[in-house]
Amino acid sequence: MKKASCPDDEKKRQLMVVNRASARRSAQRKRQYIENLERENAYLKEENNAMKHKLESCRKMFAAMLGKNTSSHSVINIPSEYIESTMADRL
């Protein structure tokens, strides 16, 4: 009777070995996937911060230019309401 169970035991053992190897590969793929996500997340955070700084710089430059533009138009008597509405239409 033991002879009949030996091949079955061997098949079970081989299946366990194959399953363990598969589980190791799966765990490694999962670790790699998480590492890639973390790297991408860090990159996107840096890019987002850079864009926020650039946007703030553009806003300051726009406000300064709008101030210069408004003052130069008021010298030639163009109403500021017209300038503001024109600028709003362009945005």
Overview features:
single chain, 91 residues, mainly alpha, rod-shaped
Short description:
It contains two helices and no strands.
Write up this protein.
With 91 residues, the chain is an all-alpha fold. The mean pLDDT is 85. It has one domain. It is 93% helix and 0% strand.
Number of continuous helical runs: 2
Low-confidence stretches: none
Name the structural class.
mainly alpha
Per DSSP E runs of 2 or more residues, the count of β-strands stands at 0
General form: rod-shaped
Question: Which strand-content bin applies to the residues?
Answer: under 5%
On the 0 to 100 scale, the average pLDDT is 85
**Helix content class:** over 70%
Round the Cα radius of gyration to an integer and report it: 34 Å
- What is the string of helix and strand elements? HH
Separation, N- and C-terminal Cα atoms: 87 Å
- The figure for the number of domains is 1
Main beta sheet, described? none
